[in-house]
Write a structure and sequence with these properties.
By secondary structure, this protein is an alpha+beta fold. The protein has 4 helices and 7 strands, in the order E-H-H-E-E-E-E-H-E-E-H.
Length: about 150
């Protein structure tokens, strides 16, 4: 079967604990991810939602694998764009690797579908979100991504 995939690697001067908190704590998420927050108890099999500031669900899925400060795998499905929702579930994997005083963060977002519109969209979304995350963790100020809000 053909796949669509997106891979992004960034390096952030932070600790494993701070990066993990930024990836899983809704208060951090609101700061760097266009005002959205995540709802999850971060256990394998738990439901996961990314929620817009107005309460609408942007994306939803479940926790597939979790190893705090090292790895997070989510089943992920778009909820607000019918054409992307119709494509089905995707898989997002975040790998965290400490390299001295720097963290290597690798995001792999993929699905078993060739030419996925959703994976194409994350190709522009993830770099913007991760740049904002990096800015927040290194300088204390996230990027102003208000132009990207729905």
């Amino acid at each position: 079967m053909s796949k669509s995939s997106f891979v992004y690697v960034t390096y952030i001067r932070t600790t494993p604990a701070k990066l993990w908190q930024a990836l899983t704590d809704p208060e951090y998420t609101r700061q760097y991810w266009m005002g959205t927050h995540q709802e999850c108890d971060w256990k394998v099999g738990s439901s996961w939602k990314l929620v817009f500031a107005d309460g609408k669900v942007a994306d939803a899925g479940e926790v597939v694998e979790i190893e705090p400060e090292k790895k997070l795998v989510l089943k992920w499905r778009n909820q607000f764009m019918p054409e992307m929702n119709a494509e089905g579930d995707t898989r997002m994997q975040a790998d965290l690797e400490q390299m001295g005083d720097t963290m290597k963060l690798t995001i792999i977002h993929e699905m078993d579908r060739a030419d996925s519109k959703f994976i194409g969209a994350v190709g522009s979304g993830w770099p913007m979100i991760l740049a904002s995350l990096k800015s927040l963790l290194e300088s204390g100020v996230a990027l102003d991504l208000s132009c990207g809000k729905h």
